[in-house]
Design a protein that fits this description.
This protein has six helices and five strands, in the order ααβαβαβαβαβ. It is an alpha/beta fold. α4 packs across α5.
């Protein structure tokens, strides 16, 4: 790894686990015929990809994804996620994006008004932007915990 900052970031990310409710949500989406893709800000380096995949395996969700978009070296994570969304929009009539970074969701919601962007709020993720600021983005939805909700 190139820097101490990257080593610290890698260590922090390697300790993250799949959030409660994600497995159920992905299984329900797949049962409804929805293709799930990962779109991560994690850099496209073998060590990061392997660590990320190990997290998906540990969370029992690796097989629920069609593919995962990783961030190219020296590209900002939010820009990489936008590139992933743009690519998906070329193949799907409806695209939704789930993210836990308020800065990223604000950027993506502004860039893609036709895409529903979900801000997963937990811990301190909801403190960066006020409710009033995020409410200015009509395609942005805040969700606290992922829960089972099956379309009828």
């Amino acid at each position: 790894m190139r820097s101490t900052g990257e080593r610290v970031s890698f260590f922090a990310h390697s300790r993250r686990k799949v959030l409660p409710g994600v497995k159920d949500m992905l299984e329900l989406a797949k049962a409804d015929g929805i293709d799930n893709f990962g779109n991560t800000g994690r850099v496209n380096k073998r060590i990061w990809v392997d660590m990320s995949y190990a997290t998906l395996v540990a969370g029992k969700i690796a097989d629920l994804f069609e593919d995962t978009f990783y961030t190219p070296l020296d590209m900002p994570a939010a820009v990489s996620k936008a590139v992933g969304i743009k690519e998906l929009r070329q193949h799907y009539s409806e695209v939704s994006h789930f993210d836990d970074d308020p800065r990223t969701v604000a950027y993506l919601a502004t860039l893609f008004p036709e895409v529903t962007i979900y801000l997963l709020q937990y811990g301190s993720t909801g403190l960066l932007y006020s409710k009033a600021e995020l409410d200015q983005l009509p395609n942005l939805r805040r969700i606290g915990m992922l829960q089972k909700s099956h379309k009828k």
